[in-house]
Amino acid sequence: MEFRDNKAIYLQIAEYVCEHILLGKWKADEKVPSVRELAVEMEVNPNTVMRTYELLQNKNIIKNKRGIGFFVDEAATEQVKSYRKQQFIADELPVVFRNIYLLNIGFDELENQYKTFVKENFNA
Question: Taking residues 81-97, what's their average pLDDT?
Answer without folding.
Answer: 93
